[in-house]
Amino acid sequence: MPNIRTINNIHQQGLACFKERYQVAEGQEAPDAIMLRSANLHDYDFPSEVKALARCGAGVNNIPIQRCSEQGIVVFNTPGANANAVKELVLGGMLLSARNIAAGLSFIEGLSEDMDAKALQLKVEAEKKGFVGSELTGKTLGVVGLGAIGAEVAHAALGLGMKVVGFDPALSVQAAWRLSSEVECADELKDLLAASDYVTIHVPANKHTQGLINSDNLASIKQGAVLLNFARGSIVDEDALLTALAKQQLSQYVSDFPSLALLKHPKVLSLPHLGASTNEAEQNCAVMAARQLIDFLENGNIHNSVNFPNIKLSRTEGYRIAFANDNVPKVLSNVLALLSDMDINVIDMLNKSRNDIAYTLMDIATPATTELLEAIANVEHVFHVNAIGEHA
Ligand SMILES: NC(=O)C1=CN([C@@H]2O[C@H](COP(=O)(O)OP(=O)(O)OC[C@H]3O[C@@H](n4cnc5c(N)ncnc54)[C@H](O)[C@@H]3O)[C@@H](O)[C@H]2O)C=CC1
Ligand SMILES: O=C(O)CCC(=O)C(=O)O
Q1: Most buried residue, 44, 78, 251, 364, by CB count within 10 Å?
Q2: Are residues 88 and 228 in the same domain?
Q3: Interface predicted TM-score (ipTM) over 0.95
Q4: What's the pTM?
């Protein structure tokens, strides 16, 4: 029975996918796979049994991808499964800032209950001029990153009557197909920043996007613009942000990632990483992650991995083995020669590669023995081998 270790709060519907065929628990010993959300695994010791990690969510900056690849651990995420939840909160963030909602709420909270009803009305009507906002319709929204979330935000903003400018030099063909032609594409980030009343960031956090919004780029931003960050804190350089706020270059920063330097800043609205915290998104992510893990553990198939190639080989007959190797010539032929020497017939086979990693699914006529698995593991450049399902 395969073991699944959970880290973080994983939606019950996702856990239910494993049925009684799996042992699933927080702190589960000898896990075949780990399911998690935002926990930081950079210093985590992966037990030797771990074959896969499933991140119930989009961002994988909390996972040491390179180390996982080296250990033959397939890392999955759940693209798009929480995009609607983030989109709705970004809209909330724009409205919070456009209509001074947080300031209005704290004004009301600060009112004395000792007033009579008439005094309360007079106070409210007298003070409301201090909270006058502006409307989103007719304003320009700049969307940095037009993937699953960026596209949803762009479309919702068009629906509110905003003009939308996007920037995404690495946009996938699939993402381009789902994007409305009403979204104007900027050639340079600076062009987007100069044109936008609101700028919202939806790129992954990685070494290329760290400090993407820096003093150089902020110097181009339209005077008084609002910056929204529901992607990751590290994408915005904090010193540059504080300077831009002090110089009124930016009027507000709305972020899902509180930091000590910004905590009490009057022009910063911070939320406690709530972008994906809806029942629907948590369920979508957990169910998608669980299904991907099950297909991997039971069939070796890979769908939505961030480090291994996508692969799907239908099950017909025979006994399945999977192996991963450095993506260099001769490995497959060496493994096939070995099978031939051992008089083992191959019924079906599929080999895919992605960057430095090649991965093969093979259905053989007889159950894989320990001897066979060890022999494949010893082929030069093979770094992981596994018998899938029932074997000798
Ligand atoms: N606040 C929250 O709770 C959540 C935050 N996120 C964050 O949002 C990020 C984006 O999520 P998705 O839209 O689902 O990912 P996605 O992979 O669908 O889209 C990301 C897009 O960013 C683009 N991109 C990458 N580098 C870029 C750059 N330098 N400039 C412009 N575009 C660039 C990519 O080409 C891609 O189209 C995640 O990586 C995660 O960090 C995601 C879900 C929830
Ligand atoms: O699990 C969560 O609440 C965080 C989601 C998130 O940040 C992501 O999907 O990248």
Answers
A1: 78
A2: yes
A3: yes
A4: 0.96
